[in-house]
Design goal:
Helix content is 42%, strand content 17%. It has 5 helices and 4 strands. The chain has a 4-stranded parallel sheet, sandwiched between helices. Helix 2 packs parallel to helix 4. The longest helix is centred in the first third of the chain and has 17 residues. It is globular and about 40 Å long. The relative contact order is 0.23.
């Protein structure tokens, strides 16, 4: 099982946005990404991240990453799809995935730490080591 986790570069997140949980900062997001990748790797999966910026290069960055390797599942982070003002980025990521990897399953997490569970929802036969 090969998984790609797509999320925002923590350093470019606007933490003054009232839509974000109070106290959220770049280090907490980095920690969540590390935990997510470790959780997936602990299951015996190959897990990578693709951190993007909320700009017109988000779609091309995801497309390039998906074209470089065959992924079984793409997890799109909650930060990309949760904010109405980032709807265009979410659309760009979805369309890049559809174009570059049409057979790759797409999952959505609610926070980085539940990414592995999101993969298991959409890939129920995901092999687990052990």
């Amino acid at each position: 099982m090969r998984v790609l986790l797509v999320g925002y570069e923590p350093e470019v997140v606007d933490f003054s946005d009232p839509a974000l949980p109070p106290g959220l900062d770049a280090e907490k997001i980095h920690h969540g990404i590390r935990v997510a990748l470790e959780s997936m790797r602990d299951r015996g999966w190959t897990a990578e991240s693709c951190l993007i910026r909320p700009d017109d290069q988000a779609g091309p960055a995801v497309r390039e990453k998906l074209a470089a390797a065959a992924y079984d599942c793409l997890v799109i982070g909650a930060g990309i799809r949760s904010w109405a003002r980032h709807l265009a980025v979410f659309e760009a990521v979805l369309n890049a995935a559809r174009e570059a990897a049409p057979s790759t399953a797409i999952a959505f997490n609610t926070r980085p730490q539940d990414s592995a569970e999101a993969v298991e929802r959409v890939c129920p036969k995901a092999p687990i080591k052990g």
